[in-house]
Amino acid sequence: MRKLYLIIISIFVASLSFATQTTQLTVSEVMATLEKSADYHMRNIAVSALTNVNWDYSEMPTRVWHISPYYDGMLALARVSGNPIYWKEVLRHGTSVGWTPNPNAKAFYHADDHAVGHAWLDCYLADKSRTERLNPIKKLFDKIINDTKTFDMSKFNIRRHGHTPLQTWTWCDALFMAPPTLARLYIITGDKKYLDYMNQEFKWCYDTMFDKEENLFYRDTRFIGKRTKNGKKIIWSRGDGWVVGGLTQVISLLPKDEPSRKFYEDLFVAMMTKIVTLQGSDGLWTVNLIDAEDIKGGETSGSAFFTYALAWGINNGYLEREKYFSQTIKAWKGLLTRINDNGKVGYVQPVGSKPNSFSKDTTHAYGVGAFLLAGSEIIKLLGGGANVSDAELARRAQAIYDAESPQARVYIEPRRKDDVAWENDKMAFRVYGPALKDSIENSGIDIWAKTVSYPVVNKWYEDNFAKRRSYHKDYGEGCDSYKVADSVGLGGTGIWKNGKLYQSNVYAYADVIWQAEGKIKFVLTYHYNVEGKDYTEYKVISLKVGDDFCKVQSKFRSGKRTWNGKLYEKDTVKDLEVAVGILAQSSNANATLANGNITVEDKMSGKTSIVQKVKTRGNFVGYKSLDFGKTKQHLAILKTDENGDIHYEIGYTLKK
C-alpha cells in the first residue's frame, strides 16, 4: 500500500511540475516573440561584420547558404501562425532569383549551393503548377549525379572543398545543406537516384568525421586529433547543430518503410542523447561542445538548432517527453536572453570554418532562422499551431505578393533567356544573360516603358509565357518598345580605349542582395577582353520605391572574376576610362550634354515620347557621340577612382 501511495505521489508531483513548466510559458508569448523577431529581420537584414575569416558577406546574396535557415524558419513560422506574410517573404526572394540555386559555377558540386533548395522545393510542393520552382534545382542535381558516373571513387582517398564530384560533403555542415534538398527531390519525383546519392554521400561524411565515442561530428577532418589548450577535443556546436537540423528534415521526408530511414533516426537519437548532457546551466550550449571553457558563453545559432531538434524530437516521438521537456523549455528560455528588445537575434557566431568568438551585437541570417525554427517547434510542444495547409498559405502569400503596390522588385528569369529585369513605381529595365551570349545582345540596358505605378514585369513575363499577351504590345500598362540591339541602351557601359568603345558580352553572373521590402540591390558581373587584357566589371544597381533614378556603381577589376559576396579590392583598376551613355531612338532626338550629364528627348516606336537621363558623379573626362545606324550613341567618359569604381545614375520619363 505504501508503495502504491508513493507511486501516486510521484505521479502527482510530476504532473504538478509539468503544469508549472507549461504555465510559465504560453503559446501566445512564444508566438509574439517569434513574430516580433521575424518582423524586425524582414525590415533589417541580419548580417554582421565578419572577423577572422577570409571572406566578407557584409552584403548577403539571397541564394548563399547563410540565408537558407532564414527561409526554413520563415516557412515554419507561417505554418504555426497561419500568417502568410512569412511565406511571402520566401516567395519574394525566390521569385527575385528565378528559383535558381547559387550561381557560383566554381563550386557547382558544393553542398552550400544547394541549401536554398529546401525552401524553393517547399514552395513548389505547395503549388505544383509552379514548375519553375522545381526545374532549376532538379537540373542542378541531375548534372551532379550524372557527372559522378564518370569517376571511379575507389581511386580517391582524399576529398576536399572544391570543384569536382569528389570534393563534396567534406564538412559536417553540408549535412544540413544538401540532404534535405535531395530528400525532397526524391519525394517529388519518386526517382531513387536522388536518395541513393544522398545516402552515399551522407555515409561517406559519417564514416569520415563522426566520433563514435562522443556521438558527435567533427566540423571537418582538420579537427580530428586536435585539442584545445585545455587538452579537450574540438567539436563545434553549430556544426553539429547543422547536422541535427538537417536530420529532422530528412527523417520527416523519408517514407516510413524506406530502409535507409532507420540509419538517420538512430543517428539523430544518438546525437541528441549526447547533446542534452552538454547543456549549460543557462540552458544554452557553448561554441565548443566538449570544452565549455575554450570560448565561454552560450552561442545562439548552435543553441537554437539544438533547441529546435529537442522540441522536434519530442513532438515526433524520438525523445521522451517526460525526460527532455524541462531541458527543452530551459533551452528556449536561455535563447530569450539572446534576443534584443526590438527582436534582433544577437550573440550569433559569425561565419567561419572553426569555433570563434561572438557578442551581443553579432547577428546573422542562420541565427535568425534557427531561432524561428526552434520557437515554431516550441509552439507545437505547448500544443499550439495553426491548422492551415501549405497550399493555402502559398495561395494567400501569392495573392498578397501580386497585390502589393507600389513596389521595387528585381527578377532573374531563366525561362526568358536569363533576363534580369527590375522596376519600381516609375521605371522598369532589363539586361540580357548567358543564354544570349552568342546573339547580338550585349551589356546594353533595355527600357520597359511601363505607364502604371504597380508592378508589371513579372505579370508581363507570365502573360508572355502563357501566350496570352506579348509585352511588345501595349494593353494599357505600357510595353517594351525600346530598341537596344548591340548598343549601350540606357546606362550600359563599356571600356573606352584608344578612341574605341569596347563593350562586354551579356552578363556572366547575376545575383540579388538581401534587402528589405521596397528596396532592391543586385550585382551583374561582366567580362571584357580589351586588346588582349581581361577585365571584370561588377555592376551594382540599387533602386527603391519612389526613386526617379537607379543608382549604379560599376567596380572594375583586373582579370576574369566571379562575384560571390566579395569584391576583390586588391585587383582594382585605377584611372581606367569607362564610357556610359544613351542610345537615341530616332534621328530626330534632342541630346543635351552638359556638366557630365546626358539628356536625350526622343520618341520610341509606338510614338511614345521619352526623356532618357544619365547623371555621372565624379571623374568626368569628356563626351563622345558615335553613329549607330540612323541614330547615335551619346557617351560620357569617366575615369575609375582609386577603388576602381565609377558612379552614375540612370532614369527616364514617358509621355504618350
Task: Summarize this structure briefly.
The protein has 656 residues and is an alpha+beta fold.
From the alpha carbons, calculate the radius of gyration and give it in angstroms: 27 Å
- Shape descriptor reads elongated
Helix percent band: 25-40%
Low-confidence stretches: 1-23, 50-56, 160-165
Averaged pLDDT, please?
A: 91
Main β-sheet: number of strands, strand sense, barrel status?
8 strands, antiparallel
- Percent strand: 15-25%
SS summary, helix count:
16
Structural class: alpha+beta
* End-to-end distance: 95 Å
What's the arrangement of strands in the largest beta sheet? 11-12-13-14-21-18-17-16
Number of strands: 21
Describe the protein:
With 656 residues, the protein is of the alpha+beta class. It is built from 16 helices and 21 strands. The protein has helices at residues 2-23, 27-43, 68-81, 84-96, 117-126, 135-148, 174-177, 179-189, 192-209, 237-253, 261-275, 300-315, 321-336, 365-381, 390-403, 457-465, and strands at 210-211, 216-217, 409-413, 419-423, 428-431, 446-447, 449-450, 478-479, 490-497, 500-502, 509-512, 519-530, 533-544, 550-558, 577-583, 590-594, 597-603, 609-617, 620-628, 631-639, 645-655. The strands form 5 sheets. An 8-stranded antiparallel β-sheet has the order 11-12-13-14-21-18-17-16, with no helix packed on it. Helix 3 (68-81) packs antiparallel against helix 4 (84-96), helix 5 (117-126) runs parallel beside helix 8 (179-189) and helix 10 packs parallel to helix 12 (300-315). It is elongated. The relative contact order is 0.10.
